[in-house]
Amino acid sequence: MNRRNFTRKSGLGMIGAVISTELSRAKVLGANNRIRCGFIGIGNMGRGNLRDFLRCENVEVVACCDVWQPNVERAIETVPGKAAGYKDFRQVLERKDIDVLVISTPDHWHGYMTIQACQAGKDVYVEKPLAHSIQEGRKIVEAAHKHSRVVQVGTQQRSGKHYKDVVELVQSGKLGKISRVSAWNYQNESPFGMGNFPDSDPPSGLDYEMWLGPAPKRPFNPNRFIFNFRYFWDYAGGYATDWGVHHIDTIQWAMKESAPKRVSAMGGKYHIQDNRETPDTLEVLYEYSSFLLTYSNRLLNASPLHDRSYGIAFYGTDATLVLDRSGYDVLPETRGTFESPEAFYKREIEAAKQNRFPNPWGSARDIWVGRAATIRGEGSDQHLAHVRNFLECVQTRKRPASDVETTHSSTATTHLANIAFRTGRTIQWNSEKEQIENDADAAKLLGRKNREPWII
To answer: Global pTM?
Structure first.
């Protein structure tokens, strides 16, 4: 069943489910409107999420879960009152007094845990990228709809004021016609990257079998653990899905497009001398119905583009807008058309009759004029605002800023880049059916079978 049919057929059932959800929600939240939260995965990003949830007045953290015991202990120390510690997330799911689960695990766990949380009647804040594969992302969407859950994904730019301002500017037409957008992440990790650690025993206090979960069985290696897991295909998709999803989500939002038609990607591991699997240099070209998008990632040179080591640039006929988390700049086009093509042609004919031949590289047709206002937009809070937006939607049952359906589309777009890169072929994407056309080998990368017993 495709997305459109699923949404249409599930609509009536969702109405009844929402009514029953509201009744149960009132019982759970109680008179003081407290939202009781459990945290699964409390490493670096998990602790960041925990910090901002604790800054919200109506939140009570009652459970902290991680497969590495030191993470559990550090998290509980920061929680006011009494929070229970767990190593097995299933024990957290079983608790009837928890309203919300915050999932900040490595990517390969997002799908299974989010679906299980929806089935258990919990609302979910899950870190980006939404899922480890496109097919897994679709299953998350279906679970959220079926169980009438609020699911917010951690693409927090959607809650940043200056990102909203940029979307309004792009959609207002003040930049002119936009036919190309670029996004990039640049840094220099040459030559050793994250190094080459040998396989070893897991650190003390780590349940490595549970850490692997749905992923294939592998020997423990320090580079596959903590932050660097994102550079191995078993668990994640490198920069394309880790950082690229932030950019892609913003671009599709601003340009009112939900998916590309074709995707090509080139790159490789050209120089970094470590054991990562994802490329150190990647160039992706997306073709949408109304514009082209390029995404560039390089780890061999940190020289910024538009004075930014990461960001987005919207190239319009009247201005270029350059954006990152610190703010944005609108840079007017300064060489504009002074007169209509008809008037230009008529004047050129008259000049020819009089044996006057203007310099073709400095024609009177062109004049240095501004076509848009120069604007500087300052940065704004995104993460805390994103958390507050989610908590508000838990209470109102409204759609959150990074709702599961929209973010699934953004995440799928980044997975297509990796599929194009790994196959070395241009991907023809049917977004309605969520299928790759005329390429059976590439289609195999749309999903994978999880390791038992973590079958979705």
So the answer is: 0.89
